[in-house]
Amino acid sequence: MERILATVNRAVNSNAAINAAMVGIFGVLATRSFAQQRVIEGLEVEKESLVKTNKRIKSTIWEWRQKLFAEAEANSLVPLSTLKSIYGEAVAVAEPSGDEEKQDAPAVKIMV
Question: Is-above-0.70 flag for pTM?
Fold first, then answer.
């Protein structure tokens, strides 16, 4: 038992043992870093692909929307103003600029 403790004590105090442990830890960390770098590169490629796909989808939706608006102008089945209000493009009604009407309006209360 004493021999084992003496051997462990010498190993702990030995620079060679400490250096070997540090080299081993460095190797493990380097391996993990390389693996993470490959994962990051794969994710960057996937991100670029998704951005391109997203741009294509947005342009397709925009084209469909413009086509829908053009068809609504030509066909009176669904008025263009209704479609624009559905898509949030309706022109806002101009509010009166009189100060009297603003004073009569109730104050907005925010409750938390």
Answer: no
